[in-house]
Write a structure and sequence with these properties.
Layout (H helix, E strand, L loop, with lengths): L2 H15 L6 H16 L13 H15 L2 H17 L6 H11 L3 H14 L4 H13 L3 H18 L15 H14 L6 H35 L1
Helix pairs in contact: 1-2, 1-10, 2-10, 3-4, 4-5, 5-6, 5-7, 6-7, 7-8, 7-10, 8-9, 9-10
Amino acid sequence: MSKLVRLSKMRTWIVTTKVTAATKTRSFITLGLIVTVLVSSCGYMNFRLPALGKVGKYVSAKNLLLEGGRAAVNDAVRLLEALATEDPFYRDALTYLGRAYYRQKRYPAALQVMRRAILVNKEDEIAWLTIGMVQLRLGDNQAGRESYKGGVALLSKLAKDGYRGYENYDLNNLVMASIRRAIFQVKKGDSVSPKSLIRAGEFILYRIDEEEVYQAGDKSMKDQMDMSG
């Protein structure tokens, strides 16, 4: 099981223990169901499912990236490349493909795809952040700082309840804390090294992925409760 999932499960426990007394019973049931979903051999982390059509490719690729291992990222790239060829405007498929290339350290390819993602959605916060990190890695520091600054500014406005379709987003304020840390570094200007900016940007994406795992587990739990009546 990946470190990301272990940390997400730990965060689920922290969030659960902080709820009010009136909701404790329900919350502990929620925790048990989330953990069950995550660790089950047929549960959330069993991502290698056949991808049928655009929706199947997108969902499977997205989940493979959340899994995070090298083989999973390679599988995600194949799915996303096929999806981008079939329909480059499908949701944020180009953004996920750019992130997958970044994970593979294929920085020029990541930059090219993220620029295409910006053409599709000029306010794609993840694309702008990733473009900034890639430019910094490639030595284009001035452009990289500007792209990075734009990405974290957009994230600071968007990463709240409703972000990415989740009604209650970032309950423990971990995503926003990572964004604020990056904004603080940006305000310090050239005194902060490109390496430090890259590390802070990667940590933002890590927190966003961690929240995605938590939210997916929560959704699975709610679906199970609805089915059980």
